[in-house]
Amino acid sequence: MSLQNSTEEKFIKFYEELADPIFRHCFFRVSSRELAKDIVQETFTRVWQYLADGKEISNMKAFLYTTTNNLIIDYYRKRRESSLETMEETGFNPSDSSHEVIVKQAEISQATKLLNELDEPHRSAAIMRYIDGFSPKEIAEITKESENVISVRLHRALQKIKERMANS
Predict the structure, then answer these.
(1) With 0-12 CB in 10 A as exposed, 13-18 as middle and 19+ as buried, what is 109?
(2) How confident is the model over 8-21, as pLDDT tens digits?
(3) Where are any strands of DSSP class E within 24-164?
(4) CA distance linking residue 153 with residue 35, whole number of Å
(5) 36 and 27 in contact (C-beta within 8 Å)?
(6) 22 and 61 in contact (C-beta within 8 Å)?
(7) Reported pTM
(8) Pair 30, 75: CB distance under 8 Å
(9) Of 9, 13, 118, 149, which one's alpha carbon is 20 to 30 angstroms from that of 163?
């Protein structure tokens, strides 16, 4: 097996394992399905190009999430966008009268709203921990910060969310 085939197989394996979790991560950060899809596509395109240039990646998962986070930051730097269609983009359909669906959509909407009210470092850490399921150590590796900084950030994010829930 050639080095090219081996690299390609590893890349495909990581794509199959991580495309959906990275999409979820993006969606909770940008609140737009189309934008999240675009960011995921751009993430994997850039990582493939990086590998095609002959560069080595020691931790593919961390590298993919770092690339994704950088693209999200670039997006927010270029354009601040607030969408009135967020509920529609998250799948809310007013014609669906199922009580359970409406309650679930309301809960998702409230959780998304609370996460979006957090400042950026706290929001990212909370999404990576509670949506993506990363440990503080993995988040630290992805963000290139200490595990202690991430733990404090998570604790403060939860405090802020609890305060906002108590005040609403």
Answers:
(1) middle
(2) 888 889 899 999 99
(3) none
(4) 26
(5) yes
(6) no
(7) 0.59
(8) yes
(9) 149
